[in-house]
Amino acid sequence: MADTAQGRSARKHQAIVTAATEVFMAKGYPGTSMDDIAKLAAVSKQTVYKHFTDKEKLFSEVVLSTTDRVDAMIDLVADIPAEADTLEENLTRLAHRFLSTLTQPQVLQLRRLIIANADIFPELGAAWYERGFERVLATLATTFQRLADRGLLRIDDPLLAANHFSGLLLWIPVNQAMFHGAPQHTQADLDRYATAGVHAFLGAYR
Amino acid sequence: MADTAQGRSARKHQAIVTAATEVFMAKGYPGTSMDDIAKLAAVSKQTVYKHFTDKEKLFSEVVLSTTDRVDAMIDLVADIPAEADTLEENLTRLAHRFLSTLTQPQVLQLRRLIIANADIFPELGAAWYERGFERVLATLATTFQRLADRGLLRIDDPLLAANHFSGLLLWIPVNQAMFHGAPQHTQADLDRYATAGVHAFLGAYR
DNA sequence: TGGGAACTGGACGGTACGGTACCCGAACAA
DNA sequence: TTGTTCGGGTACCGTACCGTCCAGTTCCCA
Lengths: 206, 206
Hints:
Two copies of one chain form a homodimer. By secondary structure, chain A is an all-alpha fold. The first copy, chain A, has ten helices and no strands. Chain A starts with 7 loop residues before the first helix and ends with a helix. The mean pLDDT of chain A is 94. Chains A and B meet through α1, α7, α8, α9 and α10 of A and α2, α8, α9, α10 and α11 of B. Chain A binds a DNA duplex through residues 7-9, 12, 33-35, 43-47, 49-50, 54-55.
């Protein structure tokens, strides 16, 4: 395990972040007590406060520590084979992965957690949005621009097109999950959203 | 005033709901104390508990009392002049009103309030979504179906098309507002989203 | 192996909140 | 005037939680 390669302090630090992530996700910011976190991390509360000055700081750390996972997402949208024949097929494949990644319960739960506390931590929500979703959108925009340069798409504003793409795909399932507290869609639903969304997108931008 | 026409009890009831709405919107469910509400309503806490058994019940009442305001929204999307020449113009006009209504700070704040507590009150979030947005979408779907019957649009699944329409328009500003805790867009932004969204929609469905 | 930093467990102060009990004063009847 | 009822406000109770303190222990590393 990587644990053994670190010092004790680093290990505790990681245990706290992991435990805090789990509890915050499950019970929300106000519903989570520092005692809960300490207990789950198998650590004394004192230690928690040694690593993080207070609850707010710990929450920020937890939220921002999730933004590095978007790199995989960025790789996903960084390129699309530029073949006219299979454009719809390639886009649909991309849409499937896009959807299945962003509709994972964990992702949606994190999203709800941040939105729920955006009034108390507005800069945190903004930071997460920038470092997370906006980076993906920007990458997707350059990919679309490249396709437009090769004459496969007709695009004025690539970033707007990227937003339209994601909106067509995600609006329905994300909305439902936000209001119901948990994902409501089946795999078949996602398939439908993917194909229909890509179809609409190509109608608009090809 | 209508107040005087009601009994004192009904007046107090209304005062409590009004005050509770304001405080819940501003400070969220956990951040709001029953004392806050009683104070703002100029009523004793005892009276609050006489009208509502507990805090949860009061919250439900407050949230569900907002769903009747969607009737105006439904009227808005219930019909579109079916003239081929001005279809884009008519849709754009609809889109403008659609956007300016649903991006009002109050509406977005309410949305955030419900999402934030959807894990504690899942049935409440679901109920609000059904009685609110889904009714609007259903109406919009029948409107689209009518346009399709007259050959102005080419639509397989009207409800999906209505979702695409709203997704194209709302995805960007709603997302931003959710994560920033307050609306971020200017009127010019909304105009852009409206025209671009309608343009994309017509590209996909005409 | 020894010294020192990091950790433990518990207790505690201060505070805020949900919900309840009790008291007070007004209105009304006799 | 006296008695009674009823609604509203204040004080209160129990609880939960954040953050701190302290005395004793464990673990890392030189």
